[in-house]
Amino acid sequence: MKRAFSFVLCGALALNLAACGGSQSTAGSAAGSTAAETLTGTAEGFGGDVTATLTVENGTITACTLTGDGETPEIGGAALEELQQQVVDAGGYEIDGVSGATVTSNAVRQAVAQALGEEIQEEAASSTAAPEPAAPAENVQIEGGLQIGQSYTAAHGDSCFTEAVAVVKDDVIVAAYLDEFQFFASDAGITPVPNSDGGFGENYADGMVLGSKRVNADYYSDLMASHAGATTRIDDNYDAIQNYVVGKTIDEIDAAASDENAVDLVSGATLADTAGYLKAIAEAARNAQQNQAVEFNGDSSQLQLNVAYAAAHGDKCFTTAAALTDGENIILSYIDDFQFISSDEDVTGVPNSDAGFGENYADGVVLCSKRVNTEYYSANMSSKGGATVTIDGNFDAIQNHLNGMSIADATALADQENPVDSISGATLVDTAGYIHAVLTAAGE
After folding, report:
1. How far are the Cα atoms of 198, 270, 370, 390 from residue 380, in angstroms, in the given order?
2. Which of 135-149, 286-300, 335-349 has the weakest average pLDDT?
3. How far is CA 409 from CA 225, 322, 328, 420, 436, in A?
4. Backbone angles phi and psi of 91, in degrees to 5
């Protein structure tokens, strides 16, 4: 049985996590003690100090009180009561911890070890065995049409949001893609999303910058390893979940996501929030069933699904573009933009805009998907620019024109002076930018 962990390493808080340590206060040594004594130890948790106060009688821990006012109330804070009992039951720091509160659990281990004057063992700190290798994706035989769709969800905590892309044949998933967006400290040295140095980035809270976890997989995975003992990279976790869903029906994915041990079903995955990612893919797959189908006859081993981020249109938004290719042709594509909009407007922000993720916005704005808010954004296009085609109608027109086109022909189209004139139903002046974004996803 794999032991699953959720890595709550979000935003600027993650960057302030230090190596566990702190002060020790004792009334004597636990070893050889015959009278009750109180021992205390402190270690750095997710949001500040976690303190363990132990009552020791005859060398045995009879009581444990844990305090950590800076821990996230609904995650680490909620875990402290259970961790107190684990310390008493284990008679020390060798506890199982609480899934979903890994940073707090490790801080408790360190604080208890320090109170006892002991050196924590490496295996207890990491609390995870070597992961299984991810099973390869199933080879799905395809006859007929393929469809692509996208979803935005809160699959993991409240300080990031998930983007899922799924390709389906009827109700069977043929390919999937996962990524997440999170704010990091601007001095962390990460690669931010496009236009972070332009108008888009002006809407960040001071000292913060938005990044993709996949693009910054080295940085984020190092955080997971150093602060939660993770042995599987974040992108490898995503890949394992993606491979698992291929060949399964949407109902089968829903059933797996409802399993309380969903992570144990997915070879190579270690994230406690695996169920959340499965739900995100299932939602994207259902959305795909509403979109245009493109004929493809072959097997899924020929197909590659990838997502790219680009500055396709000005400097106040950034584009997410997906491309399903067979090596020479763009089989399917999908486009959306993210832009900050006044929070006074009647718009729907990305998931967790009302929680930890949204705390990293500048005052008065909210991050939005143009597709999700197509009515609002299209009305602005019409009133300010005289647009006659909605924003999602433009995105669909570009996608539908590219779907089934060879990568070489799409490149030639993007390089035309006015490619928008060649695409029926498209009116965006920056049409070339969106084509180039899809081509980037296609590996060009």
Report:
1. 21, 44, 11, 10
2. 135-149
3. 44, 18, 10, 15, 12
4. 70, 25
Structural domains in the chain, sorted by start = 11-118 (3.90.1010), 141-216+234-441 (no CATH)
Query: To 5 degrees, how large is the angle CA 231–CA 271–CA 64?
Result: 85
The answer for residues whose C-beta is within 8 angstroms of residue 419's C-beta and 6 or more apart is 413, 431, 432, 435
Residue 38 sits at φ, ψ, to 5 deg, of -115, 125
What is the Cα–Cα distance from 420 to 416, expressed in whole angstroms? 9
Which tokens go with 172? Answer: 């069977």
Q: Which residues of 204-218 are buried (b: 16+ CB within 10 A; e: fewer)?
A: bbeebbbbbbbbbbe
pLDDT tens figures, 135-170? 778 777 777 899 999 999 999 999 999 999 999 999
- What is the Cα–Cα distance from 73 to 358, expressed in whole angstroms? 17
- Average pLDDT over every residue of 55-69: 92
Q: How distant, in Å, are the alpha carbons of 40, 161, 185, 315 from that of 195? A: 49, 19, 16, 5
pTM of the model: 0.73
